[in-house]
Amino acid sequence: MPSRRRALAVLLALALLAGVSVAVALVAGSIPVTFADLLPALGSGSDSTATEVIRGLRLPRAVGAFACGGLLALAGALMQVLLRNPLADPYVLGISGGAAVGALAAMLAGLALAFVNLFAFAGAFTAMALVFGLAHGDNSWTRTRLLLTGVIIAAGCGAVVALILSIAPETRLRGMLFWLMGDAGQISNPWPALALLVAGIAAALPFARELNLLSRGDTLAQSLGVSVPRIKRIVYALASLFTAVAVTTAGSIGFIGLVVPHLMRMAVGNDQRLLLPASALAGGSLLVLADTLARTLVAPQQLPVGVLTALLGVPVFLFLLGRQPGGRS
Length: 329
Known about the structure:
CATH architecture: Orthogonal Bundle
Radius of gyration: 20 Å
Number of helices: 14
Strand content: under 5%
Structural class: mainly alpha
Number of strands: 0
CATH class: Mainly Alpha
């Protein structure tokens, strides 16, 4: 278990990494911008090329990527506590599938981006309500029942997504595939997602003690005065909301919510008071850096950022799995 001083040092380093990753995202690209241009561009109302590029293009994308990465990592950490399963991630309960159905249906109908985001959020919320309602129908909500219900809903959404892709015209397929693989380039207004990230951390931290006890088992938590059903509902609602907003904002981006909480447990331990903010900072920084690579690696062509997060996440997760005795988390 890492010491408190070391954990705080890790948090400070992650905060610094977050600032550096956003700064790198603002200067990297086909149009040359130096670090010396950043402060004048962000702090003045000049109409120079650097100011227009940074404020109009790169800043919304970088802030949105950071917010979505932070939300996914935070949701992943909460889901792993809720399900007591190290393989739980934000998409395990079908929320991403519901958002995909909504977004692709809007694209198939040729609706504007605002309606695509609206339909994606509505789809995610519908999937969340279905999973919660079906898993809790007779007041016998268990982790296994919740997980199985989510898997079934996700499978159904996957079938609908495949149907939409099969009947979609070729002119819209590329946009649909980019959305499914994650595309931070579509982010135009990142501030609601960033505000939710800050508010989400503030909302989750007061329950850190209860989450620590819940991670040790329902029986122990209940014997120590924790209202287990109430905490589970709060965790499920927060994780679902974080996932829905992240998916609506940047599409379906995998492995952030699965890998980042594991890495942060190794760095700061399993105390949720440290793990939750550390996961948010690390997830946001990772997605910003991955998105910067996605738009500069084969410039001027851009890659879906979800492809890079998967290419990074698979070997990292396999490495973490190999370090545990007997494959245990």
